[in-house]
User: Fold this.
Amino acid sequence: MDYKSEYLHPQYEALSREELQKLQLERLQATVQHCMNSPFYKARFEQCGLKPEDIQSLDDIRKIPFTTKQDLRDTYPFGMASVPLTKCVRLHSSSGTTGNPTVILHTQKDLDEWANAVARCLWMVGLRPDDVFQNSSGYGMFTGGLGFQYGAERLGALTVPAAAGNSLRQIKFIKDFGTTAIHAVPSYVTRLYEVMQQEGVDPRRDTKLKVLAIGAEPHSEEQRKRIEDMLGVKAYNSFGMSEMCGPGVGFECKEQNGLHFWEDYYIVEIVDPETLEPVPDGEIGELVLTTLNREAMPLLRYRTRDLTRVLGRTCPCGRNHIRLDRMKGRSDDMMVLRGVNIFPIQIEKILMQFDELASNYLITLTTDDDNDNMTVEVELEKFDDDYAKLQKLEKEIRRRLKDEILLTPFVKLVPKGTLPVSEGKAVRVVDKRKVYQ
Ligand code: AMP
Ligand code: ZN
Assistant:
């Protein structure tokens, strides 16, 4: 390890576009060949008459059918594996709201590569072996726990598996161990800061914090800025997904100009979710990922349901790995209210622009007298009993929300600490509407 190097893996990070594409084609061909060992893919290929030798260029990826979450459910638990189970050393599972959960299998090589990918991300934002990395995310089946644990260890940082919750203990660790970097979901970071305030801890004065990895859930640029201002740190967006391994798939560099998705590990496509045709760079579509170095359970053209767009394929940081915009949300997060499509992140973006508001909010959809309504509850930064002032604020929030989402929601200002906080991914929407058949 060369501490001074910009890159942890210069042989992959610093490739030109042409070199990257050459590597991608080699790895795609090997992956498709390897998928012949998976009962699922073997049957799929037979159905559509695809042979591994049909993949002669990167464009030929379009000959391969898409894989969906439903495919993972249908083959639950092990029907997607491309290696015998005896070669697998770990599985992760993500629970769905309906039906079978999905299972992702890993060989030892998969785990090693995953740790390498996470280490590469952390190195990219300046972490080195003399850093103290506190992982304040859930452990267990959620990949943000073990994924960052092994990644930070691989980098050589002193790694603290603090897990999520118990904020007083987290703060004690941060102070006592000299924690310089934290990984957590953004909604938990704001909670942690609130407890710091209550305890009279000033992160700038009393801690050595400098870098945060925030991710696993959609959040706005405004939310990131708030976190950076609150803690006096740089906060980098981290994209992960269990089906691809977990964290380490996409991460911002110091330029903070989008997420670099590692193209030696994945082929990135952005498609129109209706027609499934590619959309031009800059246009929003569904992210589709193909794994290029996974052994136990490679996935071809996996429809992530996440909506984003390509921002660029080069970067002032010197990495030519594709840059994607922060996720707008998942297509299944989209609320349709009175015929208007709304993403929670649009509401967050507006709320975070008001200094009077804290960071926690909850959107509730209801049917009242046959009308569908939205209520946005949001916590106030400071207690205020000036009713007229609060009314004015409420009115202004409603006006700004209407400009953004084209509907006027009810707005309720509530005292700080009254809305539910989850230790894992935040629940932002509760849908209590009547469903008419
Ligand atoms: P899981 O596999 O349970 O960890 O969930 C993966 C999903 O979390 C992704 O498909 C995204 O919808 C969401 N997600 C992960 N990281 C981010 C991020 N940085 N920004 C927005 N959404 C994210
Ligand atoms: Zn960059």
